[in-house]
Amino acid sequence: MRIVPLSGITERTVTTNRTTTRVLSSGSGRVPVVFLHDSPASATFWEETMLALPAGYRAIAPDLRGHGLADPDSKISAVNGLSDVAADIIALMEEEGIGWFVAVGHGWGGSVAWRLMTDYADRLRGVVVVNPYSPYGLGGVHGLEGKPVHPDFAGSGAALVKAALVEAITERQSANGDIASLPALQHFFTKPPRRERIDALLASIYSVQFGQFYFPGDRIPSIMWPRFAPGVWGPFNALSPMFAPPVSRLYGIKPKPPVLWIRGAADPVVSDESVLDPAVMGKRGELADWPGEDAYPPQPMVSQTRAVLDRYAEAGGAYSEVVIEDAGHTPFIETPEAFNRALHEFLSTVRR
Predict the structure, then answer these.
(1) pLDDT (tens digit, 9 = 90+) per residue, 131-142?
(2) Integer Cα distance of 206 and 5 in angstroms
(3) Within a domain: residue 4?
(4) Structure confidence by residue, pLDDT tens digits, 39-97
(5) Residue 160 within a domain
(6) SS3 for 130?
(7) 3-state DSSP: the chain helix, strand, coil percent, rounded to 5?
(8) Would the pLDDT of 175 be above 60?
(9) Which of 180, 214, 226, 237 has a CB 3.0–4.6 Å from the CB of 278, allowing a cystine?
(10) Is residue 5 part of a domain?
(11) Nearest 5°: CA angle at 44, between 41 and 48?
């Protein structure tokens, strides 16, 4: 299904020295704002936010590697973490003639934003992370310092993706007008249920490139609970702390772009008790033989992010946290007025 962009959104195919992908854009201002989508999703998720930007801004949203209409030959090598995706963004900026920009990343795209900070801090005037996964990665670590539970990072990687979500994508199920009626997709919208433009949003989720080398990726058996370790392909393996750069690199980057952290208070995915966390699933009886909190505690994702950003501020950076009480995983879609208010205020402070 081709997703028709909203009026005011321009759709192009752009080829760089790294890959080819679909790029959505709007506005013609001097301040480039690059929107990075979650997984599974595509640039389509950002269209309304792009159109709501005030005058003076130029919005750009690509389909990231492995998603939407990005070249399927450009696979996500998990052993590179998210460095390939971050490098794709910089190549796109070069192709567009853009030097510095503001990055806005949601969920998995927020993890891409962390990587842009560690690898390309000099290109960033500001960073907005929206319900991002922990800077340490997703799964297999514990405590505020992100220490691995097991040496092979068992409990992180592609196997964290719910089987029902994979089934929904492979079968291209219909949500019958209410995305919240599909249990496999409820983690995108918790409250209030989204009813507008459902077909486009579902098509965006379903457009993820699927398979062993794509979404969610491969898995490797482990002798350690929960009996799986990260594989080497796909977006969720790339999220594994096994392949993430040391978080300490964030504290040493120069210059240090200001960070706005926006999160929905009701997000069940990025949480200190995430529905994706094997320990949480074990506590709920969804995974057998959980060894208990002493042996395999939950990952405090939100608390880890706050601890890292506190250290970032102590090292000379700056951040602010905005919590939207009536939102879940996608506050820019669920509560756009509150989200845009926080985003626009932050953008007004960006050095031009």
Answers:
(1) 999 999 999 999
(2) 16
(3) no
(4) 999 999 999 999 999 999 999 999 999 999 999 999 999 999 999 999 999 999 999 99
(5) yes
(6) strand
(7) 35, 20, 50
(8) no
(9) 226
(10) no
(11) 125
Q: Alpha helices of the chain — where are they, by DSSP H?
A: 47-51, 83-96, 108-120, 163-171, 198-206, 235-238, 248-252, 278-283, 301-314, 331-334, 336-347
Contact 64, 37 (CB under 8 A): yes
Phi, psi of 238 (to 5 degrees): -65, -20
Distance CA 203, CA 69 (A): 12
Is there a contact between 241 and 140 (Cβ–Cβ < 8 Å)?
yes
For the full predicted model, state whether its pTM sits above 0.90. Answer: yes
CA angle 69, 330, 309 (to 5 degrees): 105
Q: Which residues, 6 or more positions from 126, have their beta carbon under 8 angstroms from its beta carbon? A: 102, 103, 257, 258, 259, 260, 346, 347, 349, 350
Instruction: Tally the residues of the chain.
Output: 352
CATH number for 275 = 3.40.50.1820
Q: What letter does residue 76 receive in the DSSP assignment?
A: -
pLDDT tens, residue by residue, 268-313: 999 999 999 999 999 999 999 999 999 999 999 999 999 999 999 9
Residue 245: per-residue pLDDT: 95
Other C-beta atoms within 10 Å of 78: how many? 25
**C-alpha separations of 43 from 85, 104, 129, 282, 291 in Å:** 14, 12, 16, 34, 40
In 10 A of CB 17, how many CB atoms? Answer: 7
Distances (CA, A) of 85 to 24, 138, 302: 17, 17, 23
Q: Are 126 and 199 contacting, i.e. CB atoms less than 8 angstroms apart? A: no
In the three-class reduction of DSSP (H, G, I as helix; E, B as strand; rest coil), residue 335 is classed as coil
Nearest to 278 by CA among 238, 224, 334: 224
Number of independent structural domains in the chain: 1
Residue range(s) defining the domain that contains residue 243? 10-347
Strands (E), 122-189: 124-130, 141-142, 147-148
Structural domain contains residue 3 = no
The string of DSSP codes covering 242-302 is: GGSPPTHHHHH-SS---EEEEEETT-SSSSTT-TT-HHHHHHTTSSTT---TTTSPPP-HH
